[in-house]
Amino acid sequence: MEVRLDDLDRKILAALQRDASQSLDDIARAVGSSKTPVWNRIKKMREAKVIGQQTVILDPQALGFEACFFVLVRTSEHEADWQERFLQALRARPEVMEAHRLAGDIDYILKVRVANARAYDTFYQAMISEVKIFNVTALLSMEEIKSTTVLPV
């Protein structure tokens, strides 16, 4: 279900994406409104699920997660029970930052953050011991050029 947003809603969303820890006064000032209408709009957008959970973005390098792998998974299994086991295995692995089911030759792509290649191998060995996978290709990201959670509202 698409939610109808006006210009003020979009300005509020842009302000929140830049820094969700801002006070309502700061957001209202930035969008040219007053505090109560801003609060009411934020509340409505939360209820409509336009705004999801609020969290903090951590620096993976500062925490020792220096290696980012993009893992391409091909499977010969397409039954519902295999897919459920695979999804459970992915959800149980904190190293998996993102997982996408794809159209085309590759069935899934995973974004995996680990300390180093040895940690990736530990992750890989655990995954293949839990779920039968036809083919796995791991691509090491040499440099993160752009990463954002900001949508172009």
The strand line-up of the biggest sheet is 2-3-1-4
Which overall shape is indicated by the principal axes computed on the Cα atoms? elongated
**SS elements, strand count:** 4
Structural class: alpha+beta
Count the helices. How many? 5
How many strands, which pairing sense, and closed or not: the largest β-sheet?
4 strands, antiparallel
What's the CATH first level of the largest domain? Answer: Alpha Beta
Uncertain spans: none
How many domains make up the 3D coordinates?
A: 2
Order of helices and strands: HHHEHEEHE
- Average pLDDT works out at 95
What's the gyration radius in Å? 20 Å
What is the subunit arrangement here? single chain
Q: Hey, roughly how much beta strand do the residues contain?
A: 15-25%
State the helical fraction: 25-40%
**CATH fold name of the largest domain, please?**
Alpha-Beta Plaits
- C-alpha termini separation: 17 Å
Can you tell me the CATH superfamily of the largest domain? Lrp/AsnC effector binding domain/regulation of amino acid metabolism (RAM) domain
- Which architecture of the largest domain does the CATH hierarchy give at level 2? 2-Layer Sandwich
Organism: Candidatus Rhodobacter oscarellae
Protein name: Transcriptional regulator, AsnC family
InterPro entries: ArsR-like_HTH (IPR011991), AsnC-type_HTH_dom (IPR000485), Dimeric_a/b-barrel (IPR011008), Tscrpt_reg_AsnC-like (IPR019888), Tscrpt_reg_AsnC/Lrp_C (IPR019887), WH-like_DNA-bd_sf (IPR036388), WH_DNA-bd_sf (IPR036390)
Pfam families: AsnC_trans_reg (PF01037), HTH_AsnC-type (PF13404)
